[in-house]
C-alpha cells in the first residue's frame, strides 16, 4: 500500500477511535446520571442533601447576588443612555426586567455556579476518589453513587433555579437604584411598565425552565468529571478545568437553542 | 467448616491495556487462617485484592467466595457479600469529612438499626482494641499515618466481618507502629477467628503472622507454602525475593541498551551536544 494511503487510513482510524471514545464517555455519563439521580429517597439521604444544599447553594449566594446587583445596575445605566435618545426612558423597567428574566439571570448565574460550586464539586469528589474514599465506601457495602453523588446532584438541581430567581430580584433592584434613584426615571413608570409587559409564563416561566436545564447540565458535568477523573493531582486539576470549560460552553450553546425555541418562534 | 478454601481463585487472567497482569493465577485461601500474598512491587497484588472485592472483573477465570462467584453476582448481592468483608486500604481511606468516632461508626450506622447508645459502645470497644479510644474526637487530618491505619482497622472490623483484606498494611510505618499493626492483625485474627488475606512485600513482618504464603511474580504464582518451606525454596526467583538480594532473576536494571552505547558512543555525545 502506498504510504499516503496508509497514512490517511491511520488518520481515519484515529478519528473513528476518537468518536468511539466520545460516545463511550457520553454513555457512561448517561448511565451515571440515571443510576445516581433516581434512587429511593431516605431520611439519611435527606440529611445529606440538606448539607450539600448548604455547600452548593447557600455558599454560592453571596457571589450570585452581588453579581446580580452589578449586572442590574449596568443594564440600567446602558439602557438609559440609549432609551433617553428616543425619549423612551419610561420603558427602562421593562428592559431591565426582561433582559434579566429571560437571558442574563439564568445564563450568568449558571456560569458563576459552574465556577464557584461546579469546580468545588469536581475537586471534592476527585479527591475522595484519589484517596480511595469512594472505593472504601464500596467495600463497606455502601454505593457511593447514592451516598456521595446523589445528594450533590439534587442539591445542584434545586439550588441553581433558586439562585437564578435571587439574581433576577437583586438585578431588578439594582436597575431601580441606578435608573430611578440616580438617573431620575419616574418611579411609577419603572414599575408599571415592568408590570404591564412581563408575563408570568412566557418570561418568568421560561427563564426558570432555562435555569433548570442549566442546573442539570452543570451539576451533571461537575459531578461526573469528579467521579470519572484519573486519580492523580494532575488528573484532578484537569478535571476541574474541564468542568468549568464544558459547563460554560454547554450553558451558552444550550441558551441559544432554548432561546430559539422559546422566543424565536420556532 | 468445609474442605474447600473460603476464597477460591481459579485460573484468573487479567490485563490492563496491553499489559498482562495475571496469566492464569489460581490460589486457595483457607478459612480462619492468615494467608499472605507476596511479590515484588508492580506485580498486581493490590489488583488481586480488587478482584476478590469485586471492584475489578477478570478477563477470564473465577473468584469464588464462600461458594459464590463474585463476578456473577448482581450489584445488590455483591454489596451484601461485601458486608461480610472488611478491607484495610494502603492509605487508610478514612472519610475526611468525619471524625474518628464517626468513621468507625459509619458501617454500623448504614447497615444496622442499632440505637445510638449501642453504636457508641461498639465503636468504643473497637477503638479500645486498636488503642485509640482516647482519639475518638480527632479529625482524620489530625492523625499520624500509623494512627490512621489503626482507625481504618477498627472501621474494617466494625461489623465483625468474616474476611479481612489487608492491602500493604506495613508500608511506610515506623518500627513501633509496624510492631503494633503486626500484633493487632495477629490478635484480631485469633480473637474473631477471621479469614485474613495480607498483601505485602515486607517479608519479616508478613512471615511472622502468615500461616500460608503465595508468591506472585510475572503474572503467575511462582511458589506457595508455609513460611518455613518458602524460606528454603530452591527456585532462584523465590530465594531472591525471600532474602532480599538486589540482583538476580529480577534484574536491578530496568531494560536498556548498554551503558557504553548510552553514554560513550559518538551518537550519544552528538545528541547531547
Automatic annotation (TrEMBL), chain A:
Q: What is this protein called?
A: Intermembrane phospholipid transport system permease protein MlaE
UniProt GO MF annotations: phospholipid transporter activity
Recorded GO cellular component terms are: ATP-binding cassette (ABC) transporter complex
Segments spanning the bilayer are 55-84, 153-176, 204-223, 244-263
Q: Which family does it belong to?
A: Belongs to the MlaE permease family.
Extract the Pfam families matched here. Answer: MlaE
Protein's membrane topology? Multi-pass membrane protein
Q: Tell me what gene encodes this.
A: mlaE
Q: Can you say where in the cell this protein is located?
A: Cell inner membrane
Automatic annotation (TrEMBL), chain B:
Q: Where is the ABC transporter domain?
A: 7-243
Which chain regions cross the lipid bilayer? none
Q: Does the keyword Nucleotide-binding apply?
A: yes
UniProt superkingdom: Bacteria
Molecular function via GO: ATP binding; ATP hydrolysis activity
Endpoints of the signal sequence: none
Which SUPFAM superfamilies does this chain map to?
P-loop containing nucleoside triphosphate hydrolases (SSF52540)
User: Could you tell me the keywords of this UniProt record?
Assistant: ATP-binding, Nucleotide-binding, Transport
Q: Which PROSITE patterns match?
A: ABC_TRANSPORTER_1 (PS00211), ABC_TRANSPORTER_2 (PS50893)
Protein name in UniProt: ATP-binding cassette domain-containing protein
The organism is Vreelandella salicampi
